[in-house]
Amino acid sequence: MKSNYQITQQPNPDVSGLDNQVSESQIIEAVLFSSQQSLTIQQISKITGIKKSKTIRRLLEELNRFYQEHKRAFFIQQVAGGYQLRTESHFQKWIQRGRLVKPIQLSQSVMETLSIIAYQQPVTRAEIEDIRTVDATYAIRTLLNKKLIRILGRKEIMGRPILYGSSKLFLEVFGFNSISDLPRPEDFDIIPVPNQSE
Length: 198
Description:
Layout: H1 24-34, H2 41-48, H3 53-69, E1 74-79, E2 82-87, H4 92-98, H5 108-120, H6 125-132, H7 137-145, E3 149-154, E4 162-166, H8 168-174
Antiparallel strand pairs: 1-2, 3-4
Helix pairs in contact: 1-3, 5-7
């Protein structure tokens, strides 16, 4: 059955010479497609010249409905406080085959450190090491180099140690819009292991 849904075609007056050929939806789609990071409503507005935030949000929703109805391989996700064009997860095996840029790979120890920082931030190296009971220097340096964490400042205690927190890239890589979206322990179904002595 043919869908009655159509993306709103509104010419953008800021695009000189193309007013009758380019819609605001197409402009937003092109901007998201070419961006390597998520874009906020304010950034989209500045780039596209679309002034009203409400209009941008509506167009983003319309684009997503269009992708869904036409079974496209991508969708717009709200992530890291902005919006990003992403590929549906069931296409990952083909994407991996054609990927020219090596994906971010982290060892288990580095992932453990990243998890501690994400959940405990702002957190110092000593506090991380208290939890992991091993030196965290290498893991922290690795995460800083990969831009998955950032320095938030210094803790106002003796020695003023550096405070670490997650970065915007961390949110983008793991698909979170904000730190509050991280799964909490109560979100997991944990089945207690029976005591073997019983």
